[in-house]
Amino acid sequence: MANGGEVAAGRPRCVLATVVLDCPDARALANFYRRLLGWEVRLSEPDWVLLGPPEGGTGMSFQSEPDYRPPVWPERPGEQQKMLHLDIRVDDLDEAEAYAVGLGATRAGWQPQDDVRVCFDPAGHPFCLFVP
Fold this sequence. Notes:
Layout: E1 18-23, H1 26-37, E2 40-45, E3 48-52, E4 59-64, E5 86-89, H2 93-103, E6 106-107, E7 116-120, E8 126-130
Parallel strand pairs: 1-4, 5-8
Antiparallel strand pairs: 2-3, 3-4, 6-7, 7-8
């Protein structure tokens, strides 16, 4: 976008609406993130759930994929690689990690930094909790 939110000449308007996480069970993973982030369900279908923050803004979706394979982290040659991970800003690492684990997350065995906690959601996607 050009200055002031205008679309640049010759370029169509494109707006990121959601990020989609594939998983074995869309409803189960959406419920994990709904509780972790305090977001609301905006749309729910049998194999698709869209969440969004109560104050509005870009959401996150979950799609059931029967052949889903969780990524391996840290990456290893020949294994399913992660394609993205979520960074979640928190006020207190210990408190946020305990809460996430209580919801079904697991702490990664390898932690690369003291001010970041790498966890896996119930479908195996890595996400980072961090303090600014």
